[in-house]
Amino acid sequence: MGWFSKKHEQQVDRESLEQYLERSKDYKKVSYTNQPTNNQFTLSFISTLIDESILQNNALPYLLEKPFEKIEDLKKLVAMTDVQISDDPSVIEQKLFNGYALLTLESDQKHFAFLAVQKEIVRSVTTPEVEFSVIGPKEAFVESIDQNVNLIRKRLPVKELISEELTIGSLSKTKISILYLDGIVDPENVKTVIERLKNIEFDAITDSSYIVQLICDNKNSPFPQLLDSERPDRVTAILAEGKIAIFVDGSPHALITPTTLVEFFGSFEDYFLNWMLSSFFRLIRLFAVAFSILITPVYVATLSYHYELIPKDLMNTLVTSRREIPLPPILEALFLELTIELLREAGARLPTKVGQTIGIVGGIVIGTASVEAGLTSNVLLIIVALAALASFTTPVYKMGNAIRLLRFPFLFFAELWGLLGIVFCFCLLMTHLLRLTSLNRPFLEPIYPPRVTDLKDSLIRLPFSKQSMRPQTLRTQNPVRFSPPGKKSKKSDIDE
Amino acid sequence: MEQLVPEKAKISPFLVFFLVHTMQFGVGVLGYQRIIAMTAGYDAWISVLFAGLSIHIIVWMMYKILETTEGDIITAQSFVFGNKIGKLLSVPFVIYFLLIADTILRTYIEVIQVWMFQDMSTFWYSLAFCVLAIYIIFGGFRTVTGVAFFGVVLPAYLLFSFFFTIPYADIKNLQPIFDHSIKDLVMASYHMSLTYLGYEILLFFYPYIKDPQKSKKWAHLGVLFTTFLYTSLTLLTFAYFSEGQLQKSIWATLTMWKIVEMPFVERFEYIGIANWNIVILPNFCIALWCASRILKRVTKIKQKHGVILTSLIVLITINLFKSRVQINTLIDYTGKIAFYINYGYIPLLFFLVLIVKKVKKK
Fold this sequence. Notes:
By secondary structure, chain A is α+β, with helices and mostly antiparallel strands. Chain A is 44% helix and 12% strand. Chain A has three domains: 11-116, no CATH class; 145-259, no CATH class; 274-442, no CATH class.
C-alpha cells in the first residue's frame, strides 16, 4: 500500500518539523473551536513575523463565529486577499517563515491553509543621503523590495515594465527582482543577468553590494562594474535608456547594469541643470579625479628626480618650504596621504556626519602641526589636501573608494621611475580599464570603442533635443527614444 | 573558407587608421631628421613626402593580396606556394617582429638612459614593459587596438608643444630648394622609409577587421596622416636648426622640446619622453602580438604561450645590446630587413598572387 506509507511519512515529517519549531520560543500553536459547528481548528505561526492585529481583526472573528466545515470554505470566509490552500507539507516551513499563519482543521489533517498575515516593518521613504541633490525629487529607496518596486512602477506605469523574481542565498532566501522595459532592453542582457544571478552560490545575502561582487565580470578589479543608486528617478531614467535594474530585498540600493566608466562621473543632478552647466560640472569632476590621483605622485617624481623640470622661481618656493624637512619626498607624501586616509576612515566609522567634520578639522590641525614641526612641507600639505578634496567630487561613493586606492600604486611607481613610472602606471591602469567589461559590454565605451553618437551623454551632456537615440552600446531593440523635433525651415530669418 | 577569427573579436574598420598610424609613428620620430639630412641636406623634406606617398602603392598591393586570398599573409603564401612552404616562409616573420620589438624597446630605453636616468636598468624596465604587454595581449586583439587608439589620442597634445618652436624657426633655412641630385633624394627616401615602416602589420591583422572593404580608406588615411606629421615635423626641424647644428643632434625632436617654456614647466623634453611611453607601448604590443599570432598560425602553439615565449626571447636578447654601436647596428639591420620585406617581398608576393590566381582560374 504505497499511498499509505507515503502519507505516513508526511505525517512523520510534519511532526518532526513541529518538534523542531517548538525549540524556538516565538513559534506559537493555538487551538480554537468554531462555535456554530463545534469544529476544532489550529493556527500555528511565528509570532515575531506576523502582525497579530490582522489575524485578530480580519480572520479570527469570522473563523470563530461563521460556520465552516471544509477547508475550502475559508476563502469565502475571511477578509483577506491572500489565502492559499495546499496539501503539500514541504511548503510549510517556507510559508511559516515568510510570515504566513498555518491553519489546520482537526477533522481534515491532509489539507491546510495559509493566511497572509506578515508584519511589514518598513522605514518610511526618506531623502537621499548618498546621492543628495539640491533640486529634483527627494525620494530614496528603502529596505523593502515591494516599496522600492512600487516607487519605480509609479514612475513607469506601463505594462512593458517587467519584474522578474528570484530567490538567492541558501540561508537568507533573499528575494531579488529584475526590472526592465520589454521591447527596449536587449534580451541577451536579461538572459545573462538572470543566468549569473541563478549561478550565485552563497549562504546569506544581506545587501545589494554582495550581488555586485558576485555577478561582476572581473572580480579582481577595484572598479565597481555595476552602478548602484538610491534614487528612484535615476533608476527610472536608466531603465528607459534600456538598462536593467536589480533590486535586492533588504537593500536601499538598486543595481544598474550594464554600465560604463563615464556613468560613474555623472551625477543625476546633471539632468536637472542646463546642458552647458552640467557638461562643465562633468568636466570639472573628471579633472578633479585626474588631479586627485596624479598630483602627489607628480610631486614625488619631480622632487625626487626631475627638479630641472621646475622653473627657477617656482623652485625657490619649493626649496624654501622643503629646506628643513629631513624626510625624502616619498616618505613625506606617504605620511600625509596615510594621515588623510586615517582621518577619512575614522570619520566614516564615527556615528554621525559630525564625525566627518571633526575628522577634517583634525586633519587641518595635524597638518599645520606637522608643517610647524618640520615633518612635511606646506606645499605638499596643500597638494594632499586639495587632492583629498578633489576625490570627494565623484558622485558615486564606490568609485570614490576606488580612486582613493589608485593613488598608492602611482606613488610607488613615481618613486621607482619618476615621471616615467607615472606614465607606466597610467598605461597599466588604461589597460586594466580597456580589458574591463560590464555584462560583456566594454567598460570604457564610448571612449573606446569610440562611438561618437554616444558621446552626447558621457563626458559632456548635450541638450535633451540631441538625446533622441538610446546608447548604441546597449544594442536596444528600439534605439529611438523619441522622434527629434522637426528642423526649422532654413528660410527663417531674424524677426520672421 | 574557414573562419579565422570569431565575430566578437573583430574591430571596426576605422580603427585600422590608429593601428597603421601608431605602428608607423614610433621611436623614430625622436631623431630621424639628422639621418635624412645627411644625404639630401635640407631638401630631404621632399624625400619624406615622396617616401610617404610611395607607401600608398604598397598598401594598395597588400589589400589586393589580402582580398584575393581572404585571409592573412599566411593564407596568401599558402595560396601561392602551397601549404607547407607557405607556413615555412612565415617563420622568418616571427624573427622579424621580435627584431622590431627589440629595436623599439631598446631605442626607447636608450633615450631614457641618455636623457633621464643614466643608470636605469635595461633588464628591469624591459621586464615591466613585457609584463604590461603580456597583460594587454591577453586581453585579445581588441585590447591591443584599444592601446593603439589611446597611443594616438592621448599623446596628441604633444603636437601643440611644437608650436613653441615656430617663433625661433626661419623658413629661409630651407632655401634654395632642389640643390641636391635626384640620387641624393632617393637615398634620403630610402633612409626615410625605415622610419615609416610598420604598416606591414596589416598583412597579419586583416582577418580581424569587420567589413574589411571599408577599412581601405582608413588605412590609406592613416598612412597619409603619418606622412603629413613627418613632413611638417621635418620642415619645422629644418627651419629651426641650422644644417650644421642638426648634424650634432642625434635626437633633434627632443632638442626642439627644450625651447618649450611654461610658467610651471621647464625642460619639457622630460614630459615628452615620459609620454612617449604611451606611443611606444602599442608598437611593442603589436609586434609581440604579430609574432605570437604567426607562431599560433604555423605551429599550433597557443597564443597565450606564444606571447610568453616571445616576450621571454625579447627579454633575453635585449640585454645583448649594450653600447651605442650595437644598438645602431640593430636598428640598421632591422631597417634593412624591413625595407626588403616591404619594397621587395610584398610586391613579389603581389605579382605571384595575381599570376597564381589567373592560373587557377584556367
